[in-house]
Structure formats: C-alpha cells, structure tokens
Amino acid sequence: MFKRFTVFLIPALLSGCAAPGEYPSLAKRPFEKPQPALPDVPVAPPQASDAALLGRIADALKLARGGVPDFQAALIPARAAAERASGSAPESEAWIDGQLMVTRLESTTGPARDALAALDDERRLLDQHPGSPDAPALQAAIAEVEAIDARQSEAVRALLALFI
Q1: Which 3-state string (H, E, C) describes the chain?
Q2: Domains in the chain: boundaries
C-alpha cells in the first residue's frame, strides 16, 4: 500500500515546487509552422547600356584631354614669368606680368573643370538608376578628369605661391 501511495505522492509533491504563473505554450510558434510557398517573383532583366550616356562620357573625356596641351603650352611662359616676378615688389612690371601669365594659365584649366561638371551631372542622373552597367565607365572617366584637374590646379597653386 505504501508503494501505491508514493507513486501518487511524489508527482503531487513535485508539482508544488513549480512557481505559480503563466507558462509559455509548448505549441509551435508561427515561424515554426510550415509557410505557404511564395510565388516566383520575376527577376528584372539587367539594364541595357545607354549609348547616349556613353557618348556624353566620351565627349567629356575628349574635352578634358583636349585641354591638356593648351595648359602645358601656357605653363612654360607662366612659370618663367612667375619666377621673374618672385621677389619683385608687388605691382611692379615683372609682378604684373607674372600675375597675367598665371591668370592666362588658369583660364586653360576650363576644359577639365567643364568636363568634370558634366560628368558630375551624369553621375547624379545615374545615381537615380542604380545597377546601370555604365556606372564603372562613368566612375573611371570621373577619376581620370579629377586627376587632370588636380595636376593643373596644383601647378597653378605652385606658381601663385611664388608671389607670396
């Protein structure tokens, strides 16, 4: 009789050890239940290359590259005039001549800056259409024109530093 009594007594005593309150359900949670199959979403075809955009990129590169010989030709006399003006009194004839030559040199940087502005406009338009296959060509063109502009700007800054 004692054995029968202990069989019922032990579970009753163990149930008294549990804290009172709500317990989580052992039922499957929503994400564990089988989900209905999603319909196949058609994948958008890759964007086609824009021939007009590639033409505008090529035009901008041609403009920037075309301005380099003019800049190089103007750099030689501007450097000579700036070196003659170095150490001259401000507003002396050598100083004024040097300033004029550097200004002429600076005006030859226009093609690179115009090309950079055009490419920047194209970049802004292309940013509205992510995934374009023309993005790498545009980025490469921007990098090339930025390098041309940086070299030209540095040369002008170096000559202007001679006047200080």
Answers
A1: CHHHHHHHHHHHHHHCCCCCCCCCCCCCCHHHCCCCCCCCCCCCCCCCCCHHHHHHHHHHHHHHHHHHHHHHHHHHHHHHHHHHHCCCCCCCHHHHHHHHHHHHHHHCCHHHHHHHHHHHHHHHHHHCCCCCCCHHHHHHHHHHHHHHHHHHHHHHHHHHHCCC
A2: 64-161
- The predicted-structure confidence for 131-155, as pLDDT tens digits, reads as follows 889 999 999 999 999 999 999 999 9
Whether pTM exceeds 0.85? no
User: pLDDT tens digits for 101-133?
Assistant: 999 999 999 999 999 999 999 999 998 888 889
64-161 is a CATH 1.20.58 domain: yes
